[in-house]
Amino acid sequence: MPAGFHVESHGLTLVLSDGAGHAPVYLAGVLEPPPQDPTDRAMHAGLEALGRVQALLMGRLGRKWPADARAAPSARFEQGAIRLFYGEAESPVLELNPIVFDPTPHEIAGANPPGAPSAPV
Q1: How far apart are CA 100 and CA 16, in angstroms?
Q2: Which residue from 1, 42, 65, 110 has the least number of CB within 10 angstroms?
Q3: What is the pLDDT of residues 62-110, one digit of tens each?
Q4: What is the C-alpha separation between 12 and 14, in angstroms, rounded?
């Protein structure tokens, strides 16, 4: 991130701050239908987040960010993790820490205690 900027995650909202104000990046709609493979949906949400943060930063800075013209938002699923980065996979300009991702469905602990009726689907 450029000096003076930072991004925080609040659930499905990223908040870009620069000390003078903040701008939210909402991701809930990205994760909703149409149905997709869970890995594809997660990578799409990551790409959407990178693109929106990039657009907000360029608007605030008044210049291209990252400065490298080849630094388009990118995502890859490799070795059980999603890589989010700007630029080429082999030499990204900026890369976030990999997000370990298991695409198999999981139940949320405590969502339906034993014997409780299931919520309608």
Answers
A1: 23
A2: 110
A3: 988 888 766 889 988 888 888 889 988 999 988 888 888 776 665 544 4
A4: 7
Q: CA–CA separation, 66 vs 102, rounded Å? A: 30
Residue 114 CB burial class (10 angstroms; 0-12, 13-18, ≥19): exposed
* CA distance linking residue 2 with residue 57, whole number of Å: 9
CA–CA distance, 53 with 18 (Å, rounded to integer): 12
Which residues are within 8 A (CB) of 26 and not within 5 positions of it... i.e. 6 or more apart?
A: 12, 13
Rounded alpha-carbon distances, angstroms, from residue 93 to 58, 71, 72: 16, 6, 9
Rounded distance between C-alpha atoms, residue 78 and residue 92, angstroms: 15
pLDDT at position 34 is: 62
Which amino acid appears at position 16 of this protein? L
What does each C-alpha distance from 70 to 1, 16, 67, 77 come to in angstroms? 17, 23, 9, 20
Which residues are bridge partners to 81 per DSSP? 78, 100
